[in-house]
Amino acid sequence: MKPKRTRLPGITLRDATASDADAIMRLLADVNPDDPEAFEGARPGLEMPQSGPLSHFRVLIVVAADGTGRPVGALLAGAPLWLLEHESNIDDVLLEALIARVGIITAVAVDPERRGSGVGAELVRHAVRRFTRAGYGLLTLNTLPALESYYQHLGFTIMDDLIVNLDDGRMLGQRWGDTRVAARALDRHTAFADVPGLGSPVVSGLLPGSRVPRGAYFDGEKLCN
Ligand SMILES: CC(C)(COP(=O)(O)OP(=O)(O)OC[C@H]1O[C@@H](n2cnc3c(N)ncnc32)[C@H](O)[C@@H]1OP(=O)(O)O)[C@@H](O)C(=O)NCCC(=O)NCCS
Question: Is it true that domain 4-136 has CATH number 3.90.226.10?
Answer without folding.
Answer: no
